[in-house]
Amino acid sequence: MALFKKKGQGVQRKVNLKFTIDCSRVVEDKVIVMRDFEKYLRENIKVNGKRGNLGNDVNVTSNARAILVQSDIPFSKRALKYLTKKYLRKVKISEYLRVIAVNKQNYEIRYLKIFNEEEEE
Questions:
Q1: How far apart are the first and last CA of the chain?
Q2: Which of 21, 50, 59, 81 could form a disulfide with 67 if both were Cys (CB 3.0 to 4.6 A apart)?
Q3: Would you state the torsion angle of the CA atoms of residues 25, 28, 31, 33, taken in this order, to the nearest 10 degrees?
Q4: HSE of 14 in the Cβ direction (CA atoms, 13 Å)?
Q5: What is the torsion angle, in degrees rounded to the nearest 10, for the CA atoms of residue 88, residue 84, residue 44 and residue 10?
């Protein structure tokens, strides 16, 4: 790994983080538009305290079913979940969907399980 020095700090290792958000279940039902979600993440991810300041440090890409966030600087997975939930609230579908951590590097957007009392009786 490459080493670099920051002013006023000791030697730090270069971080190489990859996070994915799997949206395959909701994209099949055309609930989320991937292009809009990717654009929202690009505009709202903070780098050095400034929104939309991705530069070469953070890269956001998407394919048909998932969003991939790659970072060369320390980046919080929790912040990615927060932004995903914020996007779901913005498009007013947060009541029906939730964001679940599948493993250390992946999130998945799933439907909420709503139990109907009439079906049980």
A1: 61
A2: 21
A3: 110
A4: 10
A5: 160
Model pTM? 0.80
Per-residue model confidence as pLDDT tens digits over 20-46: 999 999 999 999 999 999 999 999 999
Residue 35's alpha-carbon distances to 29, 57, 92, in angstroms, are 15, 21, 17
Q: Which strands, in side-by-side order, build the sheet including 17-22?
A: 58-62, 66-71, 17-22, 106-111, 97-103
pLDDT digits (tens, 9 = 90+) for 67-92: 999 999 998 999 999 999 999 999 99
Distances (CA, A) of 66 to 19, 23, 37, 43: 10, 5, 10, 18
